[in-house]
Amino acid sequence: MSETQDPIQALLINARKTQILDAATKVFAEKGFHRATVKDIARTAGIADGTIYTYFANKTAVLVGLLNRLNETEQRAMHFEQGALQDTRSFMIAYLRQRLNFIFDNAEMMRAVLPEMLVNAELREIYLQQIIEPTVALGEHYYQSMIEQGQIRNIDPPLIVRSIAGTVLGLLIFSLLGDTQISERRDELPEVLTTLIFDGIHPPE
Amino acid sequence: MSETQDPIQALLINARKTQILDAATKVFAEKGFHRATVKDIARTAGIADGTIYTYFANKTAVLVGLLNRLNETEQRAMHFEQGALQDTRSFMIAYLRQRLNFIFDNAEMMRAVLPEMLVNAELREIYLQQIIEPTVALGEHYYQSMIEQGQIRNIDPPLIVRSIAGTVLGLLIFSLLGDTQISERRDELPEVLTTLIFDGIHPPE
Amino acid sequence: MSETQDPIQALLINARKTQILDAATKVFAEKGFHRATVKDIARTAGIADGTIYTYFANKTAVLVGLLNRLNETEQRAMHFEQGALQDTRSFMIAYLRQRLNFIFDNAEMMRAVLPEMLVNAELREIYLQQIIEPTVALGEHYYQSMIEQGQIRNIDPPLIVRSIAGTVLGLLIFSLLGDTQISERRDELPEVLTTLIFDGIHPPE
Amino acid sequence: MSETQDPIQALLINARKTQILDAATKVFAEKGFHRATVKDIARTAGIADGTIYTYFANKTAVLVGLLNRLNETEQRAMHFEQGALQDTRSFMIAYLRQRLNFIFDNAEMMRAVLPEMLVNAELREIYLQQIIEPTVALGEHYYQSMIEQGQIRNIDPPLIVRSIAGTVLGLLIFSLLGDTQISERRDELPEVLTTLIFDGIHPPE
DNA sequence: GATGAATGAGGGTTCATTCAT
DNA sequence: GATGAATGAACCCTCATTCAT
Asked: Looking at the structure, do residues D168 and D76 belong to the same domain, yes or no?
């Protein structure tokens, strides 16, 4: 790729990258990272094998590109800060809804990315630093301020935040493993989860 | 494999299978399913490559064998039914502890197995039918009986059970992705989670 | 390339060719012919990959161009005829010095060119006809006239000339293979070789 | 390859290696190292591509194997020490004859090996340490003892020995580049060279 | 003429699987 | 049944060359 800052060039380059990432999304989701061949991606993108290497250093870089795009997409979504404007419960529902929607809308993408991430340390590092850690940090920060405002109980911010985030991730994986209930009732999840998280399952005394 | 029902034969066959699965456990945990070669497994088991094919149809079948064994191991562990003997809260703590221990003790195994499962439909089916569905069914059943006994609130058994199971799975994956908090504080998790699940995070009125 | 005989055109074309050959010299010397890519040459020349194909039919043609230029450069150097002006011994020293300097100054170039020449018949033919044969013929001619003048013994002109030329080439290759003595003592070589060639190693009777 | 010391195994392994090296000799000589494909070698050897990798780590290792075999073959040939038994001149003739025969008999092999050696540092190192340096050291040793015995003049052992060895190598390369005289008159070379080396070309006073 | 993105054949290498011993 | 050498399909990647702009 040229070093040129030519905006038209940049546009073309981005278009091609997008084209390749779109194809990769499809192919990885269908076959998984390992079983998908570079040729598969190229064919799906309607280009030659070699062309991919003009835009990505290697097959793994394509996956990283996918990860980054996932990340960027997510960045554009709602932030915790907005939570201050609503009551805590409504915010939790809205947050979980947004979160679940994002993660389930990209479920097949996650199916492609997760396996490689579990196995590939470099990829894992990227995901951990760029996505997980900021998200958890933001969550802890928000959680902490809610505690200070007396809106929620002070249980154990790090573990609670991780548990809630983990629940969302775990539900996705259940779904990816073939559980149908979860995705079928995706819309109900935010409220059920919020009830669970806020009130728990103990019976009213 | 012969059709003979000779019990000595069967014993020998089982011994070899165990030997191979032990090796596979180690190798898959170290390298992941894809990076592990049949030769790796054979060497670790102290046998020849070809011998593996006497006991397993192919490399994937070895993973299936591992999954089945994981399943059996798990079956031998504490059951929900035992829950009836304790108060609900203590049971939940005990159950989560056992569950988390099992899953975190086999974390590296899960790292090897999960990716393949997410990508391989056949494997997924096995896991879904043999492990997830029975577990969830058992959970729902127990949950239901607890509701009937007035021990817990009737929120939405299918979703709540899946959420709790999902939380455990999600925490494992967080951990596998590099989060250190979770495994470092593994011992505290059962109680924190139980508090969350039973009481929620809402402040005392 | 156009068929035009326009002298300005020709000048421009030559300038470009020179630019490319200069770049190729550098790149081939650094990486060798095979490892050097057309892109390497283009970047070093500050032009685009494709432009090279306007001036050279293919990568090998660039090497041929290099060879021709090497040849021309060499032609401009001292000639055997000049030898007539000096005494034979001094001329031999001067000739070997010039020869060794030329060949060792272009050692890395030779490292790049020789391998391809050994393997590529077309290239070999060019080198043989354009460089080796004229040089040997010139050498034989000079040698013959020295014999006639009684300056040297009549041993076997064709073989002796080839042996002397071969010695220079052989020393270069020794050096290219990693022998350090030769290039370290390059300056002493002309005299040592001349002594060897003229007087031999037999002890004085 | 097994670690077993089983002599039958070892025999089979050696047979296969020989089979592969023979094929490689042929293919490399015909096409050169780079243009020769592993598939070419395999086909010529009558085996599958992959089989080569049971016996050699990679394509370069095959070349190294060739080099080693060349080396071993050479070891079996006449040694300098034997020179003591003859007069110096006869020994030089015999030595050069043996040397030239060896190098010209394996000319096509050299054509395959040399180019890669010039370009591949690892290979070069092997050749330098295993073949060139011992040969030169032996030569210098012999030359020194001849000086001490007053059989030859003391000119500059390191450079003279290298020059003589270089001449042989240089003549080979001339020949490989297409000069026909040298190989056609191979038989005459030892004597001509010996005359040159011992007596030089200066006219009798 | 210059560009450089696109091409796609081709290469080295890996490894699951087979099968003669 | 056990062995492990042999197989060969398949993969990722490189790079000389082309050609639309």
From this structure: yes
Contact C57, C113 (CB under 8 A): no
Question: Helix, strand or coil for residue B172?
Answer: helix
Strand E contacted by A18 CB (< 7 A)? no
Residue numbers of C between 120 and 159 with CB closer than 8 Å to D: 120, 124-125, 127-128, 132, 136, 150-153, 155-156, 158-159
The CATH code of the domain that includes D35 is 1.10.10.60
Under DSSP, the state recorded for C46 is T
Is B67 in the same domain as B95? yes
A111 inside 8 A of chain B by CB: yes
Q: Are D62 and D20 in contact (CB under 8 A)?
A: yes
Q: Exposed, middle or buried: residue C99 (CB in 10 Å: 0-12, 13-18, 19+)?
A: buried
Structural contact between residues A202 and B199, judged by C-beta atoms closer than 8 angstroms: yes
Q: What is the DSSP letter of C1?
A: -
Is residue D1 in a domain? no
- Rounded Cα distance between D108 and D113, Å, is 9
More confident residue, A64 or C1: A64
Residue C41 pLDDT level (bands cut at 50, 70, 90): very high
The CA distance from A44 to A27, in Å, is 8
- Count of alpha carbons within 13 angstroms of residue B159, beta-carbon side: 21
Q: Would you state the pLDDT for residue D72?
A: 77
B133: domain CATH number? 1.10.357
Tell whether D102 and D23 lie within a shared domain. no
Shared-domain flag, residues B5 and B68: no
On whether any CB of chain D is under 8 Å from the CB of C59, the answer is no
Report the alpha-carbon distance of residue D31 to residue D192 in Å, rounded. 33
Reported as a single tens digit per residue, the pLDDT across D96-128 is 999 999 999 989 888 888 988 888 888 888 888
Element (H, E) at A108: helix A107-119
Does residue C136 sit in the same domain as residue C72? yes
Residue B205 covered by a domain: no
Do B72 and B49 reside in the same domain of the chain?
Answer: no
The total number of structural domains in chain C stands at: 2
pLDDT in tens, D30-76: 888 999 999 999 999 999 999 999 999 999 999 999 988 887 777 66
Closest-lying nucleotide for B51 based on CA to C1': F2
Q: First and final CA of chain B: distance in angstroms?
A: 67
What are the Cα distances from residue A192, in Å, to B148, B154, B161? 20, 11, 11
Touching, A vs B (3+ Cβ pairs under 8 A): yes
Q: List the end-to-end C-alpha distance of chain D, in Å, as a whole number.
A: 68
> Is residue B137, in this structure, part of any structural domain at all?
yes
pLDDT number for residue D52: 97
Cβ <8 Å between D202 and C35: no
In D, which residues are within 8 Å of C160 by CB distance?
192, 196, 201
Residue B25 domain boundaries: 1-56
Residue B2 scores a pLDDT above 50: no
**Domain presence at residue A205:** no
Q: Calculate mean pLDDT across residues B128-132.
A: 85
pLDDT of B188 > 50? The answer is: yes
CB D107 within 8 A of CB D172: yes
Which residues does chain D have within 8 Å of residue C120's beta carbon, measured at their own beta carbons?
32
Q: Is the CB of A11 under 7 A from strand E?
A: no
Which regions of chain A are under pLDDT 70? 1-5, 75-85, 205
